[in-house]
Design a protein that fits this description.
The complex is a heterodimer.
Chain A lengths: L6 E10 L2 E11 L4 E5 L6 H9 L6 E6 L2 E2 L5 H7 L1 E3 L12 H6 L6 H14 L15 H14 L4 E5 L7 H16 L3 E5 L3 H7 L2 E6 L2 E6 L1 H5 L2 H8 L2
Parallel strand pairs in A: 3-8, 3-9, 6-7, 7-8
Antiparallel strand pairs in A: 1-2, 1-4, 4-5, 9-10
Helix pairs in contact in A: 4-5
Chain B lengths: L1 H21 L2 H27 L7 H18 L3 H23 L4 H21 L1 H4 L5 E2 L6 H24 L1 H18 L4 H27 L1 E2 L1 H4 L2 H14 L6 H19 L3 H16 L3 H10 L6
Antiparallel strand pairs in B: 1-2
Helix pairs in contact in B: 2-7, 2-9, 2-11, 2-12, 3-4, 3-5, 3-9, 4-9, 7-8, 7-9, 8-9, 11-12, 11-14
The chains are: A alpha/beta, B mainly alpha.
């Protein structure tokens, strides 16, 4: 184990029947940076997220968070350690109000949680809709709500699964600014994203998956010209 | 609006507390059964309305409570009050044993496992004749205690509705609803869903057990088919659905409305009430899956407390 890493994925493999969704994948994340995880559809990005957060049990390999093994923990235990995530398909609690969506995931003193929730709702301009059922919000609003819900638990590592998908350009800029701001506060962020402009503009290091294997890793500029990456996306 | 609602509650509460002083024997027995259905529908609401784990075997807890209390009263000479409380504890114990494996199942699989539990309990009770009297059942002392049972039933209905109120209005309780809303997201956000499901399940088992004991004492006689029938489960589900599952007052409203309705129809047309009951299930599921209160809440933006 390398010192100073916040997340270390070593040789993780996940199979579904005969399909190897993630194949001996290794990632090392140092704190306070924004990382990208890209790859064609079905390359194993979300499965890798699930192996990190405990939603899927990896078949082989290790996942360490701040030096401690977290593979084998239940999802809620992983979350309590300080890893938050959003989902590719929005997973809010539709029949809870916007405010309740944020409050329900908190553990500590209630009043502090309430203040934090109000603050975050203002931050994404949903404060007017605090008592509206989350299911009645628009797609973009739900996306923002899910994003701030992750922040309620104050995680050190945040995994975002396609945060930009379906978000309009104005909202997107705010979202990207918010992500950068989180990084500046010392959070580590790992983003799965198909929008290359987002990945290239935001991430300091990008990992590329193809058929479950990590085929490249490096700064965005280098990745863009990597032959294996180009091949994975466009074919030979 | 809110104050009017609270005032109405207070009036109803006082009225019901004084009712036995003026009521006929029939009136008291009618009301105590109504309370029983409120308690049962509300208990079902705790697990199925709030966490979305639909139980098709909740009568198993009712029957278990009835038998636990019945054995204590008839063979050990207990008073029906403490015996019914032990009935509740017996139901919770059963829920603890069965909940651990069954709550891992999802959707229809959980529902069916609960249906199976009820069948198993009925057969077990029939089989252990020495303890339960088997098919010939258990007979309680003859002197009527309807007025006391009336208050005990009212207290049971109040207790479980109070639990629903606390759950639906607190952060602790909102966690139950995240299981219904999106279990995976709840887990990923640090909520120990397995633990909360079990809490809801245990809570939902206690009062049916107590009420089972009370009802057994009031009826005076129990046998396996009388306390483990599927129709009791179905009735509590329909009542909760009709009033509005997942709400505080829905199961109360549903139980009261349908029980009065059932009594009115049943008194006149013996078979028609079963037909109408079936028809209500179809109409509710097709046209108003949220129930009366669910629709009102959605349309008029009422707070959860109403």
């Amino acid at each position: 184990m390398q010192a100073g890493l916040i997340l270390e994925v070593s040789d993780v493999t996940k199979r579904f029947g005969g399909v190897t969704a993630v194949n001996r994948c290794s990632l090392s994340l140092t704190p306070g940076k924004i990382y990208g995880l890209i790859g064609p559809n079905g390359s194993g990005k979300t499965t890798l997220f699930n192996c990190i957060t405990g939603l899927e049990r990896r078949d082989q390999g290790e996942v360490r968070f701040k030096g401690e093994r977290i593979d084998g923990l239940k999802p809620y235990q992983v979350a309590r350690r300080g890893i938050g995530r959003t989902f590719q398909i929005i997973r809010i609690f539709p029949e809870l109000t916007a405010l309740e969506n944020l409050l329900v995931v908190t553990q500590g003193p209630f009043e502090a949680a309430r203040r934090r929730a109000e603050e975050l709702l203002r931050f994404v301009t949903l404060d007017r809709l605090r008592n509206e059922y989350a299911g009645n919000l628009s797609y973009g609003q739900q996306k923002l709500l899910e994003f701030v819900r992750v922040l309620m638990t104050d995680p050190e590592l945040i995994l975002l699964d396609e945060p930009a998908a379906g978000v309009n350009p104005t909202l997107l800029n705010e979202l990207l600014a918010a992500i950068t701001q989180l990084r500046d506060q010392g959070k580590t962020i790992l983003i799965v994203e198909h929008d290359m402009k987002v990945v290239m503009g935001l991430c300091e290091t990008v990992f590329v998956l193809d058929y479950g294997e990590k085929i490249a890793e490096g700064p965005p500029g280098v990745i863009q010209t990597d032959e294996r990456v180009i091949e994975a996306y466009f074919g030979r | 609006m809110k104050r009017g609602f609270v005032a109405a509650l207070v009036v109803a509460f006082v009225g019901l507390a004084l009712y036995p002083t003026v009521a006929t024997g029939y009136g008291i027995r009618f009301m105590l059964q109504l309370f029983m259905w409120v308690a049962l529908a509300q208990s079902w609401n705790l697990i199925s309305g709030l966490t979305g784990y639909v139980s098709f075997g909740h009568v198993a807890f009712f029957g278990t409570g009835a038998y636990a209390a019945g054995i204590l009263v008839t063979t050990h000479g207990w008073h029906w009050g403490p015996a019914s409380l032990v009935g509740g504890v017996a139901a919770v114990t059963l829920a603890l044993i069965i909940g651990y494996p069954c709550l891992r199942l999802k959707g229809p699989y959980f529902a069916i496992s609960m249906l199976g539990l009820n069948e198993v309990m009925r057969v077990l009770v029939s089989y252990f004749e020495g303890l339960t009297g088997g098919g010939s059942g258990l007979s309680f002392p003859a002197q009527p205690v309807s007025v006391q049972i009336y208050y005990a039933m009212a207290l049971s209905a109040l207790a479980v509705t109070g639990a629903a109120y606390f759950i639906i209005t607190s952060r602790f309780g909102l966690r139950f609803m995240t299981i219904r809303e999106d279990e995976v997201a709840a887990e990923a956000m640090g909520i120990d869903t397995a633990r909360y499901k079990l809490y809801a399940f245990l809570l939902s088992a206690f009062v049916p057990g107590v009420v089972g004991g009370l009802s057994a004492r009031d009826t005076g006689y129990i046998e396996p088919i009388s306390v483990f029938p599927l129709i009791i489960t179905i009735t509590m589900i329909v009542m909760a659905l009709f009033g509005g599952k997942g709400t505080i007052w829905g199961p109360v409203l549903g139980a009261a409305t349908l029980f009065v309705f059932q009594e009115l129809v049943w008194a006149r047309f013996i078979y028609l009430h079963q037909f109408l009951f079936g028809a209500i299930i179809v109409v509710v599921v097709l046209l108003m899956p949220r129930g009366i209160l669910g629709i009102l809440q959605q349309r008029y933006h009422l707070p959860r407390t109403i």
